[in-house]
Amino acid sequence: MRFTPCHRCDACAGVSRNDAELAVANLTGGLFAALDNFAEALLLGFTYQQLLEEMDRGLRKKMNTVDVSAFHAVFRECARDGFVPLSRTDDLRMTQGLVDRLLAKNILSMRPNSTYTFHDRHVANWFRRQHAATRWPFTWPLTRSAA
Q: Can you give the pTM of this predicted structure?
């Protein structure tokens, strides 16, 4: 998705095309409310890197309150495939309580086609960064990968 300034609102004024494209690609995706918040923060003097670090801190706090590992099978499958079918929740050891907490904290979203996805682009990229940084050597079900 490419960012095209609308020239109809104050939020777009003063935001560089580069910053806007970074935000759409890595943080907000198509969530216009998140993009508006990003634009407002830039206009207040924050940098893209500062906002990314702040969003990362907030997501780590959410993960701590949900009390689930970033390497839970649901996150690995969602990072790999982009979604998790509702029918896989039992196989992935997702209790209803865990699902409710992940939805309430805007870590996962449920789609009308009965799948779970990451709530937004930042959440998806955060999990992908976590998994890439640790070079997770296992596949599901727990067997050693060839890599």
A: 0.69
